[in-house]
Amino acid sequence: MPNTTTTLRAVQNLRPRSRAGVAIAAGLCASVAVTGASLAAGDGGGESPKVFAPTAATQLADATGAQADAQRAAGEKAVDLEKSWVAPIEEDYALTATYGNSGDRWASSHSGQDFAVDVGTPVNAAHSGTVVKAGGNGAGDGPAYGNAIVIKHDDNTYTQYAHLSEVGVEVGEEVSTNDEIGLSGNSGNSSGPHLHFEIRTSADFGSAIDPVQFLGKQNVKL
Ligand SMILES: [Zn+2]
């Protein structure tokens, strides 16, 4: 059994610089206090546990502060996520046809960014908003898009998600950033499983802007 005074000093010397470390040290210190108490009870003498209590209390208070900080940070993270933009696919993907590219999938200039993923991969709302189009026939934009969704965002931009195997939302539904809205697929004019993703300035086909550039401005790196 180590000398408790030495152990306490060792703990104090370990007094950490990081918040996470504080919680660990507080835990250690609480153990020391218990050890002190049991020693005091066992030998009928030795160090009084009262010696340890103030330090333990201070460090536990620090730890409580750290916990409050962590909760505040988690809250801020949730708020940040709501305000922020994310990629429409969270799982691994390969970027294939890019915006403006007249690749093999489209006769004219490509209006979005393609994410090559297996059929059935969750597709998420890139930003919070309201679903304004959802369903087959490109949700009204034409059969080339297959099953599609269009979401209107508070900054008056729109996101479109196409070639889906499953549409999981309805027109009028409110979605939050990163909510799953459907599953990727190969519907419509698609030469292989992928998500076709557009940023639009209106709900309709023909108003697309470069989605990679747009997301880049929102600090989303694809
Ligand atoms: Zn595409």
From TrEMBL:
Residues 109-210 form the M23ase beta-sheet core domain. InterPro entries: Cell_wall_metabolism_enzyme, Dup_hybrid_motif, M23ase_b-sheet_dom. It comes from the Bacteria. It holds the Pfam family Peptidase_M23. SUPFAM superfamilies: Duplicated hybrid motif. PANTHER family: MUREIN HYDROLASE ACTIVATOR ENVC (PTHR21666:SF270), PEPTIDASE-RELATED (PTHR21666). One of its GO terms (molecular function) is metalloendopeptidase activity. Residues 1-40 form the signal peptide. Keywords: Signal. This is Peptidase. Gene3D superfamilies: Glucose Permease (Domain IIA). The keyword Transit peptide does not apply.
